[in-house]
């Protein structure tokens, strides 16, 4: 009786199952996967946030498919402060970037069509696309001291059913930003093959290195159909206050998206009236997150220095880091071993569709004391337990 769009009967993996058993037994776990800023010890201006959400203008319902003008203007000011002027008329509000993806798949693709998405990357794309009866085809990111798009593989992945290319800038979990030469090649490909670019930029405010080759945003792009996505979840560390958006560079696409948005009218009025004030609060929140990310990354690199059999891959931005570990055991075995012997939770690379073994992913947003305790002893674990 149920739709076949999504398989919800997948077996629970061994890591999740064992974690549940340990937590049920009351075993303390050093969780190095924490990516929820509201549970990571960030100090929020709670009274000010509550005041903004209590705006009495929210008592009147005035549905605007693309979003209230005041909220769209607040998003436009955010881009202007970044040196990327955007007309508010090109901004369409959503309740989240996940919803933005769903609307874009509705806009761009018919059932059975394809979108290209990077590998490795966050696994949400497969589920969102499946719910729209769209197929995800992966194109590889390759690592040679730094991450880059395999442009030849990307070109060969395009078929007559391809409708869009998703880029995550910076990528989750590799932390790699799109570079100018990659962007130029991507735009040429999409212009020549009549494809759209969907640029997920939720982590773009969290650069950890400087690089003049970097493209921080495609919001101002004009030479191909581009949809630049972001939201308060990451840029203000407020995932519970649901406000995302897309910047659209084609009038016809914008008109069609407004029709889709009018069907749902999902963005709440209180968050729209609060938007300008919430943007003003982001600096103090981002400052704390930036400091956490940098200190944890420094600790990680110090822990796994030149003499260590572990290697921290280069990360340019975002909230995650990748540790390459010896292939004396599989990623799953490494993660289970750390969970069993060190009571440390990490994510194996295959959670993010890494093509090869063996990589472990950790969140740099983890509280620093937990992070320091969690990364200690990995070398010793390998020496005393060389095989699973």
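^ Assign residues to that structure.
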């Amino acid at each position: 009786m149920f739709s076949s769009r999504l398989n919800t009967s997948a077996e629970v993996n061994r890591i999740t199952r064992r974690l549940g058993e340990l937590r049920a037994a009351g075993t303390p776990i050093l969780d190095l996967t924490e990516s929820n800023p509201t549970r990571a010890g960030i100090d929020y201006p709670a009274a000010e946030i509550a005041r903004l959400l209590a705006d009495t203008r929210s008592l009147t319902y005035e549905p605007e498919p693309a979003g209230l003008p005041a909220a769209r203007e607040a998003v436009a000011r955010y881009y202007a402060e970044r040196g990327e002027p955007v007309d508010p008329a090109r901004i369409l509000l959503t309740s989240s970037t996940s919803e933005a993806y769903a609307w874009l798949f509705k806009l761009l693709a018919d059932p059975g069509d394809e979108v290209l998405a990077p590998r490795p990357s966050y696994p949400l794309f497969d589920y969102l696309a499946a719910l729209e009866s769209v197929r995800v085809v992966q194109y590889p990111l390759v690592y040679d001291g730094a991450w880059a798009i395999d442009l030849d593989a990307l070109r060969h992945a395009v078929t007559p059913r391809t409708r869009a290319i998703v880029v995550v800038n910076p990528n989750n979990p590799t932390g790699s930003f799109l570079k100018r030469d990659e962007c130029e090649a991507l735009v040429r490909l999409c212009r020549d093959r009549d494809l759209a670019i969907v640029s997920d930029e939720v982590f773009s405010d969290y650069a950890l290195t400087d690089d003049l080759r970097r493209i921080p945003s495609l919001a101002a792009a004009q030479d191909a159909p581009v949809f630049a996505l972001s939201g308060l979840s990451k840029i203000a560390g407020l995932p519970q206050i649901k406000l995302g958006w897309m910047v659209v560079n084609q009038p016809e696409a914008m008109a069609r998206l407004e029709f889709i948005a009018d069907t749902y009218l999902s963005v709440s009025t209180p968050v729209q009236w609060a938007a300008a004030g919430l943007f003003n609060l982001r600096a103090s929140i981002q400052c704390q997150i930036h400091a956490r990310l940098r200190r944890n990354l420094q600790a990680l690199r110090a822990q796994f220095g030149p003499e260590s059999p572990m290697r921290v891959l280069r990360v340019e931005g975002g909230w995650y880091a990748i540790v390459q570990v010896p292939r004396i055991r599989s990623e799953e075995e490494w993660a289970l071993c750390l969970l069993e012997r060190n009571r440390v939770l990490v994510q194996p690379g295959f959670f993010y569709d890494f093509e090869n073994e063996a990589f472990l992913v950790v969140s740099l947003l983890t509280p620093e004391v937990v992070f320091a305790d969690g990364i200690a002893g990995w070398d010793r674990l390998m020496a005393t337990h060389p095989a699973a």
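The chain has a mean pLDDT of 95.
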